[in-house]
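Q: How do we represent a protein-ligand complex in a form that can be generated token by token?
A: Start from the inputs.
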Amino acid sequence: MKAWLLLAAALLLPCLALAAGESPRLVGPSPMPAEVPAPPLPADRADDVRRTRNYPDQPPVIPHSITDYQIDLNTNRCLTCHARQYAEAVQAPMISVTHYQDRDGQFLGGVSARRYFCTQCHVPQTDARPLVDNRFEDIDTILERLRRGRDGQ
Ligand code: HEC
Ligand code: HEC
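Then emit the structure tokens for the protein with heme C bound:
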């Protein structure tokens, strides 16, 4: 009987904590069924500063606005600046050689179909507050910590 009581208490405790004002971060403070107006979309970060990649083969994030940049079967706005033949005129970084390779590693004359829809992999950034903290550390940070531990610092 006592075990049952303990179990019931253990199950109830988290619910009580929630009721006491700790609402789940993804839902926010308003009650579940209430319809609240969506917050305005945060603006793109468009400061033209290229960001460090977290690991060498990370698709770099986009440091400029891409509002209304069309990408479909007939047109690809991104390529009007980033393709090899146009990069110089606008001083854009050329898409790297991997974008000209098919899945067998063969080099193609034009952009590979699997790298055509740029925003599959490259995303703009905003100043939105992350819902969940990001505790990612890059390899240099980890190695530095290990080194400090070894040197007893
Ligand atoms: C008008 C020309 C232009 C267009 C169109 C354009 N870009 Fe760019 N892009 C640039 C320039 C110039 C830079 C260099 C940084 C800067 O000035 O913003 C850049 C930087 C980038 C970078 C950062 C590269 C790095 O090494 O950090 C990415 C990724 C990128 N663009 C992706 C895109 C994607 C995806 C699109 C289409 C949705 C696009 N760009 C459309 C001109 C353009
Ligand atoms: C399937 C994922 C994917 C797609 C789709 C893709 N990229 Fe990339 N992109 C990457 C990755 C991964 C890198 C970094 C490693 C590399 O160069 O392959 C990269 C690198 C870049 C760079 C930096 C090149 C450099 O040498 O600094 C630019 C600019 C870029 N991509 C633009 C584009 C544009 C424009 C498109 C659309 C035409 C596009 N990418 C489509 C994955 C992708």
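Residues 48, 50, 60, 62-64, 66, 69, 77-78, 80-82, 90-93, 118-119, 122 surround heme C (ligand 1) (CB under 6 Å). Residues 2-19 form the longest helix (18 residues).
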